[in-house]
Amino acid sequence: MGLFDSLFGGMEGSGKLSPQESFAGILLGASACDGHIADDEVQSLFTALLRMKLYQRLNERQFQQAIQKVHGLLKKKGVDVLLDACTATLPPELAKSAFTNACDIVMADGVVEDDEKQFIEKLRAKLKIEPETAKTIARVMVIKNKG
Tens digit of pLDDT for each residue in 17-39? Predict the structure, then answer.
């Protein structure tokens, strides 16, 4: 096991994901769904998470452990397994927020690739977000990310 693996792998086996892990995992999946994680996507991910009430009670170590756990799951099992695990454990009241933030991350680099479109549609379906609501969210994210 390499240094990177010891830092970011092996933690996904510790049971059901917490709400914080589920939310972070969805955003990580949005960052990684096109096969690479761009710097602006990582920045958007951390900005979104650190401003949320959901993470205010976590200390730095707990926050890092949450990120490491979902990153380990992503690395070992892939985006689809990560998405399944996170959407299965995300509290329903966080569904629209997770979807909105995922759209924001996907659109952060100004290009929405086919893999990203497929990810967003899978996420919408798994979170049971109505298509019209999803379109409204996507329109707002397009406006937000213009310029």
Answer: 999 999 999 999 999 999 888 78
